[in-house]
Write a structure and sequence with these properties.
Helices cover 28% and strands 14% of the residues. The chain is α/β, with parallel strands linked by helices and 346 residues long. The chain is globular. It catalyses: Hydrolysis of terminal, non-reducing alpha-D-galactose residues in alpha-D-galactosides, including galactose oligosaccharides, galactomannans and galactolipids. Pfam families: Melibiase_2.
Length: 346
């Protein structure tokens, strides 16, 4: 990010979470509007772009109840209508974002999947994802659409997520809400397990959507991050190995030497950026998660160092260059330790 030690890195997304917009109503046409007490979005976008960065805004599905009865821009359709043409509201919103310089929309609380958190959410908001996808396509601006959280992974909905969004959050948020540190290891265990579960259910095809495992909190020492050195390294290796979104959630004013190294190691970023290619280059992460601390869902109780072994069959690698499809490699790892291997043909 500009004016931080990450200035020359590949981290380019400046992400605004909830709070940037007016919270109870839209403009005269029911469009979502920025809160002038907090941000002037077009001016902020100009500044962000001038620094070589990209602007991300957070949204929740649908219009405000207070805007029911307002007429959608350039139509005679009222918000609240049950007619299919009421979907013209989405292009009016996205066009405004496009003209204001927004580069990525994070659409949160999509159902089925998101827990209600005492909110009265409709059971199925997948149509919102489709509508935003179509509105972005007609806007004339390249805007990413990321959706969240812990989305339903049954095939009917998974097909919608894959065809309509750029990334989907496979778990809930991992930050320590209300605590003095950013995250705890049991939340990381849960996020990784949900990623692995999602990868298993690819319905026998190439995955066509990136996974969002939430923000990276690896940049700060334990007093800030809540994680040990090994846990910080393992978090980064998993996010890289999963080709997950790399959006830094750490305090950028208190990055330590380890955090800066973990976030900027060229070989890791190259592995995340490139992924498998025609030369059969791939990456593999081996890890010892330690005992399940109550959130992971995998239920193991093994403590201390463990020998982690992976075979060629585990990696689905075959070929004449391999000595035997059953041979692979092993490594002894302490709790929360991991390694990231770059695999190339012999």
């Amino acid at each position: 990010m500009s004016q931080t030690p990450l200035d020359e890195s590949d981290y380019v997304h400046c992400s605004l979470d909830s709070g940037w917009s007016v919270g109870a109503n839209g403009d005269d046409f029911g469009r979502i509007i920025y809160d002038t007490n907090n941000f002037d979005i077009p001016s902020l976008a100009y500044h962000v772009h001038d620094e070589g960065l990209l602007l991300v805004v957070y949204l929740v599905p649908g219009a405000f109840i207070a805007d029911e009865g307002k007429t959608i821009l350039d139509t005679n359709i009222m918000i609240g209508s049950i007619e299919p043409v009421v979907q013209q509201w989405h292009p009016s919103v996205v066009d405004q974002f496009a003209s204001g310089g927004v580069d990525l929309i994070k659409l949160d609380f999509v159902t089925p999947g998101s827990h209600t958190n005492n909110a009265n959410l409709p059971a199925n908001l997948s149509g919102e994802v489709i509508a935003y996808h179509n509105a972005i396509a007609q806007s004339g601006r390249s805007i990413r659409l990321d959706i969240s959280w812990k989305l339903d992974r049954s095939q009917a909905f998974f097909d919608i997520w894959e065809s309509s969004a750029d990334s989907m959050q496979s778990d809930q948020d991992i930050y320590n809400a209300g605590e003095c540190t950013f995250v705890a290891w049991d939340f990381l265990q849960r996020a990784i397990e949900n990623y692995l579960f999602t990868m298993v259910i690819q319905y026998n095809r190439m995955l066509a959507i990136y996974l969002d495992m939430d923000s990276l909190f690896v940049g700060n020492e334990a007093d800030f991050s809540g994680m040990t050195v090994a846990e910080r390294q393992t978090m980064m290796r998993h996010w890289v190995g999963a080709a997950a979104n790399l959006i830094v959630g750490s305090d950028l004013t208190h990055l330590d030497a380890l955090g800066l190294d973990v976030l900027t190691r060229a070989d890791q970023i190259q592995a995340w950026d490139a992924g498998p290619d025609s030369s059969v280059y791939a990456v593999a992460v081996l890890a010892n998660y330690g005992p399940d601390q109550g959130q992971g869902g995998f239920g193991t109780v093994f403590e201390g160092a463990q020998t982690v072994t992976v075979s060629s069959d585990d990696l689905d690698i075959t070929g004449t260059d391999l000595r035997s499809p059953s041979e692979g490699f092993s490594i002894e790892l302490e709790e929360a330790e991991s390694v990231l291997y770059r695999l190339t043909p012999a």
